[in-house]
Design a protein that fits this description.
Radius of gyration: 22 Å
Shape: globular
Distance between the termini: 41 Å
Structural class: alpha/beta
Strand order of the largest sheet: 5-6-4-7-8-9-10-11-12
Number of strands: 18
Helix content: 25-40%
Number of helices: 15
Length: 411
């Protein structure tokens, strides 16, 4: 039931939300947006999605919650979760749930803010030019975080320069006294530091405003490092594996400091972080450890996940599927992942999906290819021995989570 709700029918290419107006009204909605007269209480608008986004913009300004906007080619969701964890010890935080990072998800997230929420941590995703601009117009962020400029969505944006242009659309609607936080080790993002005075950088380089030093890789247990910045030197533990997690934690440190939090509170929040399902989630079976990173994939995140697997103890099995939206880089990117598997000494490679043929071809003789997740389950099950570590990673549409669930049921 949706008692008292306003129904927003979205008119898409494949589905016309206007068909569901009668059902919405029967289930408790009191009014609907409509782009043409309907026989129900309605607000007539030119475009229902635009009106929905206008509502979110107005409501966000009304509640006055400080907004942290997050975008980038890889690591957006984990960085969002890490920032929320770092802030939650001292501030009331509202964050993007699930994959609500698009043109309909962001307004839903913003409209769920309450006047008690002090910070909204909002993830912003995109495929095409103009999409981040629309999301930022609603959120009007106080802090803009850009994780990196990789090759995800290059099919639609043409080049890394195009991706940078699309991601930095967020800055157009940043509050006048806002702060920009970027990965200072990214060759594209560092250009912002060179051209603007409101940019804070994080990374491993000596030139970064907040940098990590004395990094200790604790395997699947996580990472430990020292944050160094003017007036700051603090040891931080991240309970998730992978060198890339150091960057996510550094971004969280920067945001926490922007809002005046003590380093002790920030580091406590980071150490309490727990991964969400499908995002470097370490899952323990009876005889098998699974690194469940099935939510999404691009060349940057897949190479990072493979390095985590390579650093683990025991037999190393990689189940890798298609990476989507890479355009003309599709073939070379998948072959590069196979070559990396061989270089890192991954014991067994199981490639899933049409694009992933390139992974299998470039890996080594023990690599095998399967057309889909269902057909690969038995091969994945047969590959493990006692104490094996198995990584599953692909774009979300490949549904490799099916393999994870089947393996944990039986092994």
């Amino acid at each position: 039931k949706a008692n008292g709700a306003l129904f927003v029918p979205i008119i898409g290419e494949r589905l016309d939300g206007r068909k569901f107006i009668p059902n919405a009204m029967e289930n408790g909605a009191v009014m609907t947006l409509a782009d043409r007269p309907v026989p129900y209480p309605h607000i007539l608008v030119d475009d229902t999605l635009s009106a929905f986004q206008d509502l979110a913009k107005g409501y966000t300004a009304y509640v006055g919650t400080k907004i942290v906007g997050i975008t980038g080619s890889a690591g957006k969701t984990t960085t969002k979760e890490m920032i929320a964890a770092a802030l939650s010890g001292k501030l009331r935080v509202h964050k993007t749930q699930g994959n609500f990072n698009n043109q309909t998800g962001v307004p839903q997230t913003l409209l769920a803010l309450s006047e008690e929420d002090e910070i909204g941590v909002i993830e912003m995703g995109m495929n095409h030019f103009g999409e981040i601009r629309a999301l930022s117009r609603m959120a009007q962020p106080d802090v803009c975080v850009i994780t990196n400029i990789g090759e995800a969505h290059i099919e639609y944006l043409g080049s890394r320069e195009g991706i940078l242009q699309a991601k930095t659309e967020m800055l157009e609607y940043m509050k006048p006294d806002g702060k920009i936080i970027v990965n200072g080790d990214d060759d594209m993002l560092i250009k912002l530091k060179q051209s603007r005075s409101d940019v804070m950088t994080y990374g491993l380089g000596e030139y970064c405003d907040f940098r990590a030093a004395d990094i200790i890789d604790k395997g699947l247990a996580g990472m430990e490092f020292t944050v160094i910045a003017p007036g700051v030197s603090r040891r931080v533990f991240v309970p998730v594996p992978g060198a890339h997690m150091v960057y996510n934690a550094l971004a969280a440190v920067c945001v926490g400091r922007c809002f005046g939090l003590a380093m002790s509170d920030i580091s406590d929040g980071i150490s309490a972080y727990r991964p969400i399902k499908g995002r470097m989630d370490i899952r323990i079976g009876k005889r098998l450890t699974v690194v469940d990173d099935t939510y999404n994939a691009n060349p940057q995140s897949m190479s990072a996940a493979l390095r985590v697997l390579a650093a683990s103890e025991g037999k190393k099995i990689a189940v890798l599927g298609d990476m989507k939206e890479l355009g003309e880089l599709t073939e070379s990117a998948h072959r590069a992942m196979g070559e990396l598997c061989a270089l890192l000494g991954i014991d067994r490679v199981i490639a899933v999906g049409e694009y992933a043929r390139g992974i299998a071809d470039a890996a080594h003789e023990s690599a095998a290819w399967y057309p889909d997740a269902e057909s690969a389950v038995d091969a994945a099950r047969a590959a493990f021995t006692e104490g094996s570590v198995l990584l599953c990673k692909a774009s979300h549409s490949m549904h490799l989570e099916k393999i994870v669930e089947e393996l944990l049921k039986t092994t």
